Amino acid sequence: MQVREILEKLKNAEISVDIALETLKDVSIADLGHTKLDLDRTARTGFGEVVFAQGKTPQQLVDIFVELKKQKINALATRVSEDSAKVLAQCFEDIKIDNLSHTAVLYSSEVPQPTGLIAIVTAGTSDMSVAIEAKAVAEFFGNKVECFFDCGVAGLHRLLSNLENIRKANVVIAIAGMEGALASVVAGLVKTPVIAVPTSVGYGANFQGLSALLSMINSCANGVSVVNIDNGYGAAYIASVINRQSK
After folding, report:
1. d(CA 104, CA 96)
2. Which of 104, 117, 111, 123 is nearest to 202 (CA)?
3. By the 8 A CB rule, do 120 and 145 touch?
4. Which of 161, 158, 173, 156 is nearest to 243 (CA)?
5. Which of 68, 63, 108, 62 lies closest to 84 in space, CA to CA?
6. Distance (Å, rounded) from C-alpha 121 to C-alpha 189?
7. Closest C-alpha to 224, from 175, 187, 172, 198
8. Of 91, 98, 177, 209, which is most buried by a Cβ count within 10 Å?
9. DSSP string, 136-203
10. pLDDT tens-digit profile of 229-242?
């Protein structure tokens, strides 16, 4: 039963207060043994359930998706391995697997209609996997997304040639490895918030993304916020919140 149905039964004296309380506990959490699924996240936050697949077995992911489908909750998994992707594809004929972004999406209820606009800008082609993860997450949350790949500061004309379209977005996600300069440059050219994503792309002194992270945190440009290294998901979530407020 859903929350409204439980409350209606309580109102009509079909169930007691104690039974209603116990039932509500079951509605908010599904205990799968290995996982306690939050079934009330959408009602609280407005965004669907997202599963971090890394470290979970293929069977655990199947169990999670089965329960979410049963509860008619749209589900997205990130960091899905090739083995897990194959198993999920075999178990759910309507699942959408993206091997580049390492995501899996299963819609069990209404698909959100895309609104607003989020621009995703990458410094190099090597940053694309993080960008595609961000794109998959943002679209799952009901945003329009436009990507601008390979627009790094080593060839500034590539960024400037796309600037008019980037400025149409309500929020920009700037993704860069190496020295991470892209976020500062973009923030100095647009009126909207910029979410910077450092990536682990780079040579030894990049320290697997640490140099880009520190550069972005120390940005002299206004309006830059920074998420963790390679965290396309985190950037897309924040961008979705901002985009929603811009409607």
Report:
1. 6
2. 123
3. yes
4. 173
5. 62
6. 13
7. 187
8. 177
9. HHHHHTTEEEEEE-S--GGGHHHHHTTHHHHTTSSEEEEEE-TT-THHHHHHTT-SS-EEEEE-S-SS
10. 999 999 999 999 99
